[in-house]
Design brief:
alpha+beta; Transferase(Phosphotransferase), domain 1; Aminoglycoside 3'-phosphotransferase, Chain: A, domain 2; five-stranded antiparallel β-sheet; three-stranded antiparallel β-sheet; 48% helix
Length: 303
């Protein structure tokens, strides 16, 4: 059993330090004790806390009682992490990290160990896109009867409200925001399919593994059409497109290539990508990263 003190990585502390939510602050304060209790309960040996780590969870590298390497994850409590375990159980290791055990009491997830330092972002862009497309395709499965996941259509009102609030801080983007608002209202109602989606898919969330070359991590599961998930992949590494010549044409080619390779409607992928680019752009600008926000908004105009 681990006896060394467990401290949250500084990146996580900095990310959550200004969060006004009392539950989140309380969770962060209690985290060292909670982690140690879970290590003891599951008889895990702590190797080290993963650093610098992410901004939405603490991940500790551990070993099971038989010596098998694993990863113990504690996501920040909230809606985005509420059904991560359910999604991982649904996939059961098909295209995603395998869930070995979970605890509802503290949200702990015991996961197979992947190579955390090796993601698809380590590959050249064309190869990374190819591998990412093959990975996300595996995740698109029926959600099942009585599933616990939120739906894109069910989140429409709050998504529209969030975009309108963030967009108000970026007045120059008003026409794009209005276009994105219109798309967010009508796109879910026009969908003809329902799949379990990763929800936050991008190259950085696909890591190298042992039993499979590449496996997805960190889902924010939602049920809806595949174009929503694929739109995030269109946006991935958008800075590379922006830095090259003919950025607008290259962006449209990426949409067409991904849509055709995964048999997704081009126009719906284009529309979801525009919405997600604008939503991300105004959010980044409102949070203070105006340069990145403006580049995302420019990306939206290329579509």
């Amino acid at each position: 059993m681990a006896t060394a003190p467990v401290e949250p990585p500084q990146r996580l502390v900095n990310s959550l330090g200004s969060d006004p939510s009392t539950p989140v602050r309380d969770w962060l304060a209690a985290l060292p004790t909670v982690v140690q209790q879970r290590l003891d309960a599951w008889e895990l040996t702590l190797e080290r806390v993963d650093t610098p780590g992410g901004r939405g969870s603490l991940v500790a590298l551990v070993r099971l009682p038989d010596g098998t390497p694993a990863a113990l994850k504690f996501p920040v409590p909230g809606r985005t992490s509420a059904h991560e375990a359910a999604a991982l159980r649904t996939w059961d290791g098909w295209g995603a990290v395998r869930l070995l055990r979970s605890a509802d009491a503290d949200g702990a997830l015991l996961l197979e160990r992947l190579h955390g330092a090796v993601s698809l972002r380590s590959l050249p862009e064309a190869k990374a896109l190819l591998e990412a497309a093959g990975t996300v395709r595996r995740l698109w499965v029926p959600p099942g009867e009585g599933h616990p996941f939120a739906t894109l259509s069910g989140r429409t009102d709050e998504a529209v409200a969030a975009l309108r609030t963030a967009g108000a801080a970026v007045s120059a983007a008003a026409p794009l925001v209005e276009q994105a608002l219109d798309l967010r209202r009508v796109l879910p109602s026009g969908a003809t399919e329902e799949f379990l989606l990763h929800g936050a898919f991008r190259q950085g969330k696909v890591l190298a593994g042992e039993r499979a070359p590449w496996l997805a991590i960190g889902p924010e599961p939602v049920v809806g059409e595949r174009a929503y998930d694929l739109a995030a992949l269109v946006l991935d590494r958008f800075e590379d497109l922006a830095a090259g010549s003919g950025a607008a044409a290259a962006t449209r080619r990426r949409v067409a290539k991904l849509a055709d390779s995964l048999e997704v409607d081009r126009e719906r992928l284009r529309d979801w990508t525009l919405y997600r680019a604008v939503a991300a752009g105004v959010r980044e600008a409102a949070a203070g990263d105006r340069q990145r926000g403006e580049l995302l908004l420019e990306f939206a105009t290329w579509l």
